[in-house]
Write a structure and sequence with these properties.
Blueprint: H1 9-14, E1 18-21, H2 25-38, E2 41-44, H3 51-60, E3 65-68, H4 74-89, E4 95-102, H5 112-125, H6 129-132, E5 133-135, E6 149-155, E7 161-169, E8 172-180, H7 184-197, E9 203-205, H8 207-211
Parallel strand pairs: 1-2, 2-3, 3-9, 4-6, 5-6
Antiparallel strand pairs: 4-7, 7-8
Length: 213
């Protein structure tokens, strides 16, 4: 197949036009620096990144195009755009909840996709997600604060990734759902992003940019 396998990322990046990266936060930061030095496209699908990690990635994006998304699936990114529009159209009479389920081996929660949906809903509402996110409930929590965005994470079996964003209003409810049945959807989206990024100026892009949303 003509595929080079090497433990040395510098060797691989030296002859590449793009790097597709679904690794760990620590590895992603190293790859971001190498890709920036080589001035090649870096597609990041890694989740569980801290605020400090995000700052390092933003710095690397000053030197090369970086396309970063919590989920590379084309369907999820369409769902995210729809969620933003729905949140913009509805006031806080409609409570927003994001529910996700993944396989038992996933190590971070909420998933990057759930956070992406939450961010989109917060943008639609014109609020800061950090100030309005509720991550898990236990015991006597009292009434639900108006305007907050809740997250629930389920883990079990071999589930590739299920995501649902719920807009629950008085007497009615809207549920937007995406079910991933095959991990190849992430690869297809990542390759599309890498192809789109060729020739783009340095900057931090998202799949919304790739899809023109």
């Amino acid at each position: 197949l003509g595929i080079t396998v090497s433990p040395d990322p510098i060797e691989l990046i030296a002859g590449a036009e793009a790097v597709v990266d679904f690794t760990t936060p620590q590895a992603t930061l190293e790859i971001a620096g190498l890709a920036a030095n080589a001035r090649i496209v870096h597609v990041i699908g890694t989740t569980g990144l801290s605020e400090e990690d995000e700052a390092h990635i933003a710095a690397a994006a000053r030197h090369a195009p970086i396309i970063k998304a919590g989920n590379m699936s084309l369907g999820v990114n369409i769902l995210t755009a729809i969620a933003r529009r729905v949140a913009e159209a509805l006031d806080d009479d409609f409570d927003i909840e994001v529910v996700e389920m993944h396989h038992r081996d996933k190590v971070d929660a909420p998933s990057g996709t759930a956070l992406m949906l939450g961010e989109a809903a917060a943008e639609g509402r014109g609020i800061d997600l950090k100030e309005h996110a509720i991550r898990g409930r236990d015991g006597i929590t009292g009434p639900r604060p108006r305007g907050d965005i809740g997250f629930a994470s389920l883990r079990g079996g071999s589930v590739v990734g299920d995501h649902k964003i719920v807009f629950a209003g008085p007497g009615e409810r809207i549920e937007l759902t995406h079910l991933a049945g095959d991990r190849s959807i992430f690869a297809r989206g990542a390759v599309k992003a890498a192809m789109w990024g060729r020739g783009k100026p340095p900057g931090l892009y998202t799949m919304s940019d790739v899809l023109g949303l």
